[in-house]
Design a protein that fits this description.
The protein has 3 helices and 2 strands, in the order H-E-E-H-H. The relative contact order is 0.11. With 86 residues, it is α+β, with helices and mostly antiparallel strands.
């Protein structure tokens, strides 16, 4: 589903698998490719933040370094909030 939509040229006729219909803006849509099929699952912003924080903690525990006081995921969240505010 996702791959087919991404390959289609503009103007697209297939339904966008990344758009949410009637779902709160605090919920993201995750498209997971599984062979020939794809699964679209809704996950909350909180779940995404927890997963990213867990991944960043693992990278630091493995000897990675943080070059800034704002984490990479924190920066992305700030950028998305800024975009939404415009």
């Amino acid at each position: 589903m996702c791959t087919e939509w991404e390959r289609e040229i503009f103007p697209k006729t297939k339904k966008n698998p990344y758009e949410t219909d009637g779902v709160s803006t605090s919920i993201a849509t995750c498209c997971i490719e599984t062979g020939a099929d794809s699964i679209v699952a809704a996950i909350t912003e909180s779940q995404v933040r927890k997963e990213l924080a867990k991944e960043e903690e693992g990278q630091l525990a493995d000897g990675g370094v943080s070059l800034h006081t704002t984490s990479a995921s924190g920066f992305v969240v700030l950028a998305l909030e800024l975009e939404e505010a415009q």
